[in-house]
């Protein structure tokens, strides 16, 4: 029996990827989460981070937010910000980093925003290395 | 009887009009393909979003404390109507169809003694609606200078709706737009977005119990506003495709009509030319005979 399930990432204007995989790691709101076949039905949010689709070669997507639903061995990720890591150039990442840093410096942001932004920065810096 | 010169001018002007409509049709056809693609690509997102919300609604534990965006305010007094139209004309019945549907709803709402508030998006709809319902319009949007409408624009409108809701400005929100079915059929639609549309659960569908992380309420709090923007965005995409489709058919008809008109005028022109030649001949012959 195959140990694979389908994963689909959809943004408002198109379907980004639809493929079969055996394992996916998603940056869920409350921590990283690995999903295998026959996971119980699940609905959760994403925080900024990397979606890692583990096929023969790892495929990584950077996301800022999103909604995840897993049911009947179908993993569905709805997000408007998914970007494949290999297609992001350094300049783009740098502008994202400086934007986030500026936002973090402001005093009026809430704890939740601070939490999200710090994750975004961390992920982006990791990609940049 | 128009003179030969008049007819000639007329034929020329109809021909140049035909050229314009033909060009517009070509442009619309090219744009339609892209818009249609976008609309089709955008459908899964909004559908799946709606599905997730449905699933969430089903498993919500405490309906009394559920977010107001989902269950409504409990009263049904003020209706907010969001009318999405195009910024450009010359697209057949596209704008009028939406306005017609919207106006009939307005009439119904007002006759039931409820309050009416209107938000218009796109200048053409505004022109048609403000004649009768100007005092109800609370906000006007126009994205005339934007080449393509993206999720950002939809979010602006979505946020506006949510802000109004938080201020208790309305109890029920309805979205008016054209649903793109195919090139010649576009169906004007009224979609209720607040409170969220709750289609009854299908019997044969198994009720999956989901694991939520964080709690259902928190997810719903975050997801519902997002859903509103998504639905607005979907309406935008459908509208864009419908507009181009509608324009294409309208311009195709116009081109054909112009062709018919040219044919008719050419026959007229030839006839009167023949008539004047015959008349001249008769004059010459009768002149020669009388000598």
Write up this protein.
Chain A has helices at 90-105, 111-128; strands spanning 5-11, 14-21, 23-28, 31-35, 42-46, 49-54, 58-63, 66-71, 74-78, 83-84. Chain A is of the alpha+beta class. Chain A folds into two domains: 5-84, ATP Synthase, domain 1 (Sandwich); 88-128. A five-stranded mixed sheet of chain A has the order 2-1-9-8-5, with no helix packed on it. A five-stranded antiparallel sheet of chain A has the order 4-3-6-7-10. Chain B has a domain at 45-243: Pyruvate Kinase, Chain: A, domain 1 (3-Layer(aba) Sandwich), CATH 3.40.1380.10. In chain B, helix 3 runs parallel beside helix 4 and helix 5 (151-166) packs across helix 6. The longest helix of chain B has 74 residues, at 216-289. Chain B is elongated. Classes of the chains: A alpha+beta (129), B alpha/beta (291). The interface between A and B is medium-sized, with 23 and 29 residues.
Helices and strands, with pairings:
The complex is a heterodimer of chains A (129) and B (291).
Chain A lengths: L4 E7 L2 E8 L1 E6 L2 E5 L6 E5 L2 E6 L3 E6 L2 E6 L2 E5 L4 E2 L5 H16 L5 H18 L1
Parallel strand pairs in A: 1-9
Antiparallel strand pairs in A: 1-2, 3-4, 3-6, 5-8, 6-7, 7-10, 8-9
Helix pairs in contact in A: 1-2
Chain B lengths: L3 H55 L9 H4 L6 E7 L9 H18 L3 E7 L1 H11 L3 E5 L9 H16 L5 E9 L5 E9 L16 E3 L2 H74 L2
Parallel strand pairs in B: 1-2, 1-4, 2-3
Antiparallel strand pairs in B: 4-5
Helix pairs in contact in B: 1-6, 3-4, 5-6
